[in-house]
């Protein structure tokens, strides 16, 4: 009957049920540390703060709570959590659950995220540019890219399975709390100007990192091929050779590919300007990379290449002397001033006039 109620605190009791369906004006609800196995807040659209940690919740629907900025649902039995309809969210505590995935891409205001003690295998915080604190330790993460999180002040990512950690663009000094111990890292990527400071201050002896971990401006995780051009990597994602835009692709996903067409006839915003990573396609026999914005092309590792169409780019030189299997080459409509060919009578070249 308390329809005008705006705040309710009923935590630290023995409640097994809670009905707030008639309290449509409710803005703050604290019901943590009870025995609740369900909680319906779908009729509370004004809710800005929900604290329901320390219960036995197996599910939680906050899709109608678009105004919520603080959500503490830690220490429950949640195996999924959808916060895609909560753009105002600034604080999220979902630690100590059974989450296998967590999508925070629609939470640009997020500044504090605690998701440790779950079963997360991936975590993308690239859209959370306001993030200052991330505690994601004790998960199953293999990859963590913090390069978009320039406001970061505290990162705890120990006890995962990380093989790659990108801390580029993050200001690294005494103001940054950092712990990445008990992972599978050989290298942590930082800006060049922070390498010396990180090497001296983030150490195995201090318990910050594992023994033998180094800091570098570029880390190459074992088993991956570096693909720095986002449009090239997106093309690989579209071709199902990759699954996330992070500058790397699993080498085993591309090493057996024999044919690839990344030509671009219409969409200027999708032009590929750098084919770094093409060397990982060691079985490639056919490549069409025409109608892009390539200024250089290194195919020395693609020795099985039979057909190459690189027309309508911005190439000034092209060396295919290592591509001894090449039988067809189309390099017209470039700006070539140098062209090194194969000395073979079996090769038929199309319009190799230097321009």
Automatic annotation (TrEMBL):
Gene3D superfamilies: Ribonuclease Inhibitor. Keywords: Leucine-rich repeat, Repeat. InterPro entries: CDIRP, LRR_dom_sf. One of its GO terms (molecular function) is signaling adaptor activity. This is Uncharacterized protein. The lineage of its organism: unclassified sequences, metagenomes, ecological metagenomes.
């Amino acid at each position: 009957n308390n329809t005008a109620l705006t705040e309710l605190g009923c935590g630290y009791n023995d409640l097994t049920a809670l009905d707030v369906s008639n309290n449509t004006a409710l803005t703050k609800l604290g019901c943590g540390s009870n025995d609740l196995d369900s909680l319906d807040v779908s009729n509370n659209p004004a809710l800005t703060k929900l604290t329901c940690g320390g219960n036995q919740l197996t599910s939680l629907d906050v899709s109608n709570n678009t105004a919520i900025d603080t959500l503490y649902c830690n220490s429950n039995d949640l195996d999924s959590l959808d916060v895609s309809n909560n753009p105002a969210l600034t604080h999220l505590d979902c630690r100590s659950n059974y989450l296998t995935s967590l999508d925070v891409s629609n939470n640009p205001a997020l500044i504090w995220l605690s998701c440790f003690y779950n079963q997360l295998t991936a975590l993308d915080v690239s859209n959370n540019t306001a993030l200052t604190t991330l505690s994601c330790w004790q998960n199953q993460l293999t990859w963590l890219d913090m390069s978009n999180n320039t406001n970061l002040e505290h990162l705890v990512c120990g006890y995962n399975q990380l093989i790659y950690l990108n801390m580029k663009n993050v200001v690294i000094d005494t103001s940054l709390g950092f712990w990445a111990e008990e992972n599978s890292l050989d290298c942590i990527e930082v800006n060049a100007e922070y390498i010396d400071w990180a090497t001296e201050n983030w150490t195995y002896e201090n318990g910050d990192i594992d023994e033998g971990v180094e800091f570098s401006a570029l880390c190459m995780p074992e088993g991956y091929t570096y693909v720095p051009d986002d449009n090239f990597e997106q093309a690989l994602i579209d071709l199902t050779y990759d699954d996330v835009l992070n500058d790397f692709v699993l080498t085993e996903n591309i090493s057996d590919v024999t044919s690839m067409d990344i030509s671009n006839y219409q969409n200027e915003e999708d032009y590929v300007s750098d084919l770094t990573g093409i060397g990982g396609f060691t079985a490639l026999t056919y490549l069409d990379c025409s109608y892009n914005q390539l200024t250089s092309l290194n195919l020395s590792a693609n020795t099985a290449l039979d057909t190459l169409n690189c027309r309508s780019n911005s190439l000034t030189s092209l060396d295919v002397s290592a591509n001894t299997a090449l039988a067809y080459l189309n390099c017209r409509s470039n700006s070539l001033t140098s062209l090194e060919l194969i000395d073979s009578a079996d090769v038929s070249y199309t319009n190799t006039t230097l321009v």
